[in-house]
Amino acid sequence: MFAATDQQYEAERVKKVAAIIRQQRTDTAEKLAAAERETHHIEQNYGDATKVNTTEIDDQMETNAAVQQQKQLVALAVENQTILHNKQNRLDRLQDSHYFGRIDIKEGQQEQDTLYIGTASLMNNDNEFLIYDWRSPIAGIYYNGTLGKVTYQTPLGQQQADLVRKRQFTIKTDQIVNMFDTSETIGDEVLQQVLGEEASLYMQNIVATIQREQNDIIRNTSADILVVQGVAGSGKTSAILQRVAYLLYHSRTQLDSDQIIMFSPNHLFSAYISQVLPSLGEKNMRQVTLHEFFSQRLEGLRVEDRFSRFETDQASFPESTKAIRRYLESAAIMQQIAQQMTSKRPKLFFNDLLLDGEIIITAELIQQVYAATNEQATLTEKILQTKNRLIRYLQHQVRALADSDWAAEQLDLLSDSAYHDLLAEHSFNSAAVEQAFLAKKIAQRHLYPIYEALYNNYFIDWERQYLAVLADVGPVDVSPAAWQARNQNVQAYFEKHQIQLCDVAPYLYLRDLVTGGGVNRQIQYLFIDEMQDYSAAELCYLQHAFSMAKLTLLGDNAQDLFAANYQTTNVIQTVQNLFPKKKIQIHELNNSYRSTIQITNFASALLTDHAQILAFNRPGPVPQLIVCPRLLDLNHQLSRECSRLIEKYGMIAILTKTHQEAEQIFATLQVDAQVTLMTEQQRRLHHGVMIMPIYLAKGLEFDAVIGYNVSETSFHEDGDHQILYTIASRAMHELLLLSLGKPSHLITDLPSNLYQQSSDLPVQKH
């Protein structure tokens, strides 16, 4: 218990800080309005300054000076507005919850300091800190320190202090809702309160509840590759988003949000996390899915997406296909491609370049030009030399075409507007010179598609090149006949302008090694969520494509939905093997906070190795398993349970194994609530009942989850225990599993105290 004076002091301080925030918001709003008026006035003057007479040289000099002065004034006015906008946003964030922590520290012989920690800094008119930003060096004590001697990093190096007190608050609208002292990082009282709340449409920032192990991840600036292996509900994605905010704060003069890119599992997840950084006053980093990235780089080819491949695998996935996919997704094929393309003079295949069905540049000519390049040059240099010589050859063809009768005929057919467009602002001394200029323009315009083809390396037959590489390599555990048949299948896909997902990384890598392209050197940080979904070949290619970026990889091996039934390699081992010369730091998050202890214990028991998952002690009902003898019973039971759960919670999810099941449920579900069928095209979560295949639910959480048809028929393969684990670990408060007939042995083999089973339920009459 706190002394009355202590409680009174903190309550009065909250009110004083609230009053200062309100006053600063009012002052800032007035200054911002004045700044906007000033900017408008300066912009008007800028327009007037450019209208000064420039006939005389003195007038020109005077006008240029005035224009430059006005430009500087506009820039200063805009910068002032930006500063005021940022301050206004910061004060808005502090208005509802001013701060959440307090630390009392003593350094050496100095007097004891009291510091309050919040989502942003706040100073009074005397430039005294009332609130410290959670990302400031001194705030690290709040997250990492227990009472006693502590150290913290500063720009001047490591400092030492005595942590005398650590206090935590929950403040809402000028009132202290909860306050207590603790020696821990974040006390259970705060976590119980936060974790007991209902699910939300958007992920919330966790700055008030960051744990010590999460803080180590957030503040890491030394690793080339940071790997975060976190169990479901461990807050790894939240911590990574706080890491982005921290990096933008820590390196604010060298780093911009446009220099950070995150690969998200799907668009739904991208929307779910979209509010975290803005809630901390930072712009969102760039987000993209792997499918979007590959599709952009392979314009003209339809790239197979991971979700449709997963659905196909459920129907048929023979052992030979598994072996081939393992090879194509390995680091070995990337190494073999690199070896082939760095040989002295690898054989290249070229295309005829056609225009309107006519061959303009033959493949034979391109081969001759390539063969004549400098023997000592690299492959990339040889391609550049070949391209430049072909462009010069094309310029000869432009001149020849301009002198032909065809060009003269085209000139006669020009409309007046087209004629003047070609002339632009050019003027000529004679009609003959003008005609020659126009003829060359027409020839250039006609042959421009060939120039584009040369510029974009379309003269190289990439598909044939890739097939030639495949013919020279292959997995040792697949017969030559099976490998050849597979390569013929690749060719058939190419003919339909399609490419399978497992071919994309090696195909792109081959193309980039030949041309020297495909590398983005502007991105400084690359984040990959659900790293276990990425093959070694894909990780290798992404590191190549973003060669200057530091990598942050996060995921959970136990949630490997897409490769668990054919791939057993641990992703951490894969990363260590891929990047032996990089500074790799690995963090493991084993505490699960999302679900009740009953749900977490059930979910972790589904895994063969679950001893490392530590459940947070938040109690709730035991997971329910309901067995239905007929499909009609199953659907009636599903409708009843949805109706029951929707009365208690705002967001519940029905999770299926496949999209086809989700569509069937959507067509038959009878419930008095909003029901949404979630697809990859959906960009946000909805209140009510959401139906989706499990692969769209990765990273998300719901108040209650119904796992649909967890029968032995549906869940009996090697990787299915990971699918069931992912389904179960999406639930925060309640988990219900429905089975059509015999339940999966992956569930019934568990200790009976982990779940409650019922069966033979009567069918509801309608």
* Main sheet: strands, sense, barrel: 7 strands, mixed
In oligomeric terms, what are we looking at? single chain
Computed Rg:
32 Å
In percent, how much strand structure appears in the residues? 15-25%
Which stretches are poorly predicted, pLDDT < 50 over at least 5 residues? 761-766
Structural class: alpha/beta
Number of helices: 27
Instruction: Give the termini separation.
Output: 58 Å
Account of the 3D structure:
The chain is of the alpha/beta class and 766 residues long. 46% of the residues lie in helices and 18% in strands. It is built from 27 helices and 26 strands. The strands form 6 sheets. Strands 1, 2, 3, 4, 5, 6 and 7 form a 7-stranded mixed β-sheet that branches. The protein has a 7-stranded parallel β-sheet with strand order 22-23-21-24-25-20-26, with helices on both faces. The chain is globular. The chain starts with a helix and ends in a 7-residue tail after the last strand.
Chain-wise SSE layout:
Blueprint (H helix, E strand, L loop, with lengths): L3 H46 L7 H40 L4 E6 L6 E6 L3 E2 L5 E5 L6 H5 L3 E7 L2 E16 L2 E7 L6 H8 L16 H7 L6 E6 L5 H15 L9 E5 L2 H6 L3 H4 L6 E4 H8 L4 E2 L2 H10 L3 H10 L2 H11 L11 E3 L2 E4 L1 H9 L7 H24 L2 H8 L3 H8 L7 H25 L6 H11 L7 H16 L2 E2 L1 H15 L9 E5 L6 H10 L4 E6 L15 H8 L5 E6 L1 E2 L4 H9 L8 E2 L8 E5 L2 H16 L4 E6 L2 H10 L6 E3 L10 E6 L8 E6 L12 H9 L2 E10 L4 H4 L7 E4 L7
Parallel strand pairs: 2-4, 8-16, 8-17, 9-10, 9-15, 11-14, 15-16, 18-19, 20-25, 20-26, 21-23, 21-24, 22-23, 24-25
Antiparallel strand pairs: 1-2, 1-6, 3-4, 5-6, 6-7, 12-13
Helix pairs in contact: 1-2, 5-6, 12-20, 12-21, 14-17, 15-17, 18-19, 20-21, 23-26
